[in-house]
Amino acid sequence: MRTIQFFDTSLRDGEQTPGVNFNTREKVQIALQLEKWGVDAIEAGFPIASPGDFEAVKSIAAVLTKATVVGLARCQRQDIDRAYEALKEAVHPQIHVFLATSPIHMKDKLKMTPEEVLASIKEHVTYAATLFEKVQFSPEDATRTERAFLLEAVQTAIDAGATIINVPDTVGYSNPTQYGELFAYLISHIKSEKEIIFSSHCHDDLGMATANALAAIENGANRVEGSVNGIGERAGNTALEEVAVALHIRKDFYEANSAIQLQETKRTSDLVARLSGINVPKNKAVIGGNAYAHESGIHQDGVLKNPETYEIITPQLVGVQTNSLPLGKLSGRHAFATKMEALGYQLEGEHLAQLFKSFKQLADKKKQVSDEDLMALVVDDIRQE
Ligand code: KIV
Ligand code: ZN
User: Fold this and answer.
1) Residue 138 Cα: closest atom of ligand 1
2) pTM above 0.90, yes or no
3) Mutational pocket test of ligand 1: of 97, 136, 170, the residue with most ligand atoms within 8 Å of the beta carbon
4) Rounded to whole angstroms, how far apart are CA atoms 41 and 199?
5) N or C: which end of the chain has fewer CB within 10 A?
6) Mean pLDDT estimate for the chain
């Protein structure tokens, strides 16, 4: 069983969600909860980006004892120096240096030739390695980079001292087959005397960020980057809670685990949702409000007999108190009777049949039938007797 490292970037890439701006106190609060959740590394920010981000990274570096604290830096000396200043008090500091390697980014954004990009990687990773023991390099837009050049860029970074290679699917362009294959290719072609950690970093533009991360793991990645609730630029990043639970539930397939304390998942998700102001969609996997709710009669009947008929994840596994059986027009007699019993009404025979009929008539007119609605049905029934 391999152990996959979790690298959380909610406070850096996640903060790139339009409209999200964490202050230092909020970042520290989230970082402490992430450490409790069990992540191995926390990308606390981009220290050169603003004085506020510098302060936040520095404050997080001062309080975390277990998790590695990471600062982002472009291939520029002043970025690396600023990251060093922010992280120098950390128990476990790490720098994350990045430079784009795809033709479109090199030509239209960086206005650099491929040779200049390689030279810059060499110079800046070498410099970063003089200040940090742990140096991560990311070839930005790796999945749209010409493969031989990507290998050259990655090998250049390794030769210059990087021991963590992150492979970003910056624009969410890849798919599980191609992304997995890219990891297999890089891992089998790099040359290094030191052990190299390969890390996935996916965006969700085509809705494949979690599937891509899992494909990377299947093909040898031993670290996964992402954010809580999948917050991030555009459609967001890989939702780390999804990867953690997928590894746990399907350990038969992935044969890998993590240090994530799954029972802290809901608490972590709620905190990030509250402080980011980005609500979790009801139908979101693992932590959405409906993830453990069953409305149709057939499902409710099954769950009442044995929850495993329709639940592959128990709500308690991720810190959700209980599942729920909301009543609507598709609900069945079993769930209706169970709910009435919970409300204090023991219904049987003709009486149950009569009230169930009234419930169905009401449910046809409403999206959901509340406890108050159900009690009103009983009162009406008593009045008619
Ligand atoms: O998506 C991306 O390419 C990034 C890099 C900075 C790693 O976030
Ligand atoms: Zn990203």
Assistant:
1) 7
2) yes
3) 170
4) 12
5) C
6) 97
